[in-house]
């Protein structure tokens, strides 16, 4: 295995889906079992919903509460060689750039000393429900938000915080994302690319539609290569800019046994590791630690390494062993 740094989304909510409350003791125990004292990234999400906020999203995502406190206490993210990867999501119903920049400032003020990575927007390249690409003004939110975050972090002395953004794959999904990359291509490097430290990839080749297991390795490598070789150069982001697999997962559920999940994750993670040196992939983060709700059948509810009450599936031990071998 390569020298990737591994990590996970450790909370339980996925968009509007949530089962039992997060259990801090269980999270601490399970994350510790995965990391084994190695450097380990923990992913968290904060959401800007605009003013007024959509009531359904506000009830589900609790943005004000999350600005006060994440899943675990602040000190947990900075001990045991853990590293916080904090995602700032842009989800207003109407364009609100001023409100967004104020939100970025609040987030940096609150968590700038805790975070090691700050992701500006979540998958702005596709208009998916509950994902930033569906929000009016998302391209300006990405570019202006990145510049603003850089100024704020530098001014506060948090120059070690890496700033990036993530995109969804595959490129053919929903008819492609050429308009997104054309927008970034038209920008002068000083206006955007110069402020980007890494690019994240949301990698779900088989999560939402059936894919034969033998095809998984090829689909995984294709997504990484296409982003590195064809998309990032258009945005003036060269081979020196690292790639992070910001999210990767495959669910259990109807027709998807726990053993299938374990085998498929093993294939995808080993493929990422095999490509890491050649494509400058430095981080891999799995989505996620536990199911959002094991009682529901939709894929987003059952992506976890454990059930929603923290009973490990076979995939938990697979991921733990792969990390130990790295």
Helix/strand order: EHEHHEHEHEHEHEHEH
Rg, Cα atoms, Å: 18 Å
Corresponding CATH architecture: Alpha-Beta Barrel
Q: What's the arrangement of strands in the largest beta sheet? A: 1-2-3-4-5-6-7-8
State the separation between the terminal residues, measured CA to CA. 5 Å
Protein name: Arabinogalactan endo-beta-1,4-galactanase
InterPro entries: GH
Structure in words:
This protein has 326 residues and is an alpha/beta fold. It has one domain (5-325): Glycosidases (TIM Barrel, Alpha-Beta Barrel). Helix content is 36%, strand content 17%. It is built from nine helices and eight strands. It has helices at 24-35, 55-61, 63-68, 97-111, 138-155, 178-185, 216-231, 258-279, 314-325, and strands at 5-9, 40-48, 82-90, 115-120, 162-168, 198-203, 243-248, 281-287. The chain has an eight-stranded parallel beta barrel, surrounded by four helices. The longest helix is centred in the C-terminal third of the chain and has 22 residues, at 258-279. This is Arabinogalactan endo-beta-1,4-galactanase. InterPro entries: GH (IPR017853).
């Amino acid at each position: 295995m390569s020298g990737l740094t591994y990590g996970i989304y450790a909370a339980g909510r996925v968009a509007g889906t949530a089962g039992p409350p997060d259990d801090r003791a269980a999270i601490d125990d399970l994350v510790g079992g995965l990391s084994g004292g190695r450097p380990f990234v923990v992913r968290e999400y904060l959401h800007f919903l605009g003013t007024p906020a959509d009531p359904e999203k506000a009830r589900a995502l609790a943005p004000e509460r999350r600005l006060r406190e994440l899943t675990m206490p602040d000190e947990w993210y900075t001990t045991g060689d853990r590293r916080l990867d904090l995602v700032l999501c842009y989800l207003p119903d109407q364009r609100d750039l001023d409100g967004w920049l104020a939100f970025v400032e609040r987030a940096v003020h609150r968590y700038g000393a805790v975070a090691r990575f700050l992701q500006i927007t979540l998958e702005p390249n596709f208009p998916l429900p509950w994902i930033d690409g569906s929000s009016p003004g998302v391209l300006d939110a990405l570019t202006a938000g990145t510049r603003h975050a850089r100024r704020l972090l530098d001014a506060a002395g948090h120059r070690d915080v890496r700033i990036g953004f993530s995109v969804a794959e595959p490129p053919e999904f929903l008819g492609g994302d050429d308009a997104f990359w054309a927008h970034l291509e038209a920008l002068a490097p000083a206006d955007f690319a110069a402020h980007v430290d890494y690019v994240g990839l949301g990698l779900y080749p088989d999560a939402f539609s059936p894919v034969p297991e033998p095809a998984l390795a090829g689909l995984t490598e294709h997504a990484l290569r296409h982003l590195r070789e064809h998309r990032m150069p258009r945005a003036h982001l060269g081979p020196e800019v690292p790639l992070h697999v910001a999210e990767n997962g495959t669910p259990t559920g109807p027709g998807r046994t726990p053993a299938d999940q374990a085998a498929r994750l093993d294939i995808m993670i080993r493929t990422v590791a095999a490509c890491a040196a050649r494509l400058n992939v430095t981080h891999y983060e799995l989505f996620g630690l536990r199911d959002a709700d094991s009682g529901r059948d939709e894929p987003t509810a059952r992506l976890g390494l454990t059930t929603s009450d923290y009973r490990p599936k076979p995939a938990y031990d697979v991921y733990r062993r792969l990390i130990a071998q790295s």
